Amino acid sequence: MSSGKRSLHGRGVLNRQKRVSVTMQQAELFVRYARLADAGAISAITAEYARKGIMLERSDENIIENIRNFFVAEYNGEVIGCCAIAFYTQKLAEIRSLAVFNRFTLKGIGRLLVEKAEMVLREEGVTEVFVLTLNRNFFGRIGYSEISKEYFPQKIWRDCTHCPKLMACDEIAMVKKL
């Protein structure tokens, strides 16, 4: 394969240019930057996870304000997954709001979203990325290691101090060198 592409479990190709694609049942899945028109779908996907207590709910206004930080997975014209990035320093960023509609889970879509986010972060010069997650197994399989939340005071001061779960946070901090 060319230097810009590599195989993903024999199911497709990661294009390091503009989008990530994988073949799923004769159709294509694309991972791309989100557009304003995707805000409603992002809201629906993240709300599904918020109802289950897996992530905090994001308002439509918050999603729209941060739309340029989101990526979406699109399958047959439908947005089926999302994730966002947040920068804390020139070298440190977070991947957040990773969610895939339940009927599309366990198909590698979350991994593709994370890989797209990591690719963009590398291009920006970020050398370390972290997540706060309840799914340590998923992130562990893709190279993240557990670390104390206190390692990220920027995150705590910016976001956690406003979180309703502040005093009973059940999320695990994980980090990866890029």
UniProtKB/TrEMBL annotation:
Keywords: Acyltransferase, Transferase. GO terms for biological process: L-arginine biosynthetic process. GO terms for cellular component: cytoplasm. Gene3D superfamilies: 3.40.630.30. InterPro entries: Acyl_CoA_acyltransferase (IPR016181), GNAT_dom (IPR000182), NH2A_AcTrfase (IPR010167). GO terms for molecular function: L-glutamate N-acetyltransferase activity. It comes from the Bacteria. Residues 29-178 form the N-acetyltransferase domain. This is GCN5-related N-acetyltransferase.
